[in-house]
Design goal:
By secondary structure, the chain is α+β, with helices and mostly antiparallel strands. It has a domain at 53-149: Aspartate Aminotransferase, domain 1 (Alpha-Beta Complex). It has helices at residues 26-62, 88-102, 129-149, and strands at residues 66-68, 76-81, 108-112, 115-121. The longest helix has 37 residues, at 26-62.
Amino acid sequence: AHYLFQSEDRTNDLGHYSLQCGRRNDALKLFLAWRQKGDEGWSKLIDAYMELADYVESKVSSHARLELVSPREWTNICFRYTSEIIDQNALNKELRKRLMQNGNFMVSKAMIDGMYIIRLVISNPEITTSSLDNFIEEVVRIGDEIEKELPHK
């Protein structure tokens, strides 16, 4: 499409060399990161991510107010806050909105079998079990708060 490549901009445009055309070349970022960490560094980082994903999956599965919605794949944990008294999709949508507004945690969302879910992806080297504990506490605190505010079924 004509709008992808801009000729009047004099900055280095690596978009010509990427599949997305309008974005910087992602392969260069990967190459530089791999060069900095090396094979062993990446292996350790991925192992740490998987251990953290196991940890939070266990926390979600054992919590009375949370439900693991699908089996964990890789480092993605799909779950929701559960309630018997209000619409769960509305509750989880509002919960994610407040999490994002608070700015302490960044999570995505998805729909699985008509259920609005929170999707936590472990992909930050600064994440710790302590920060995941704080995340779970925040999710439950906000969920409890919303449950009191939203109209009951």
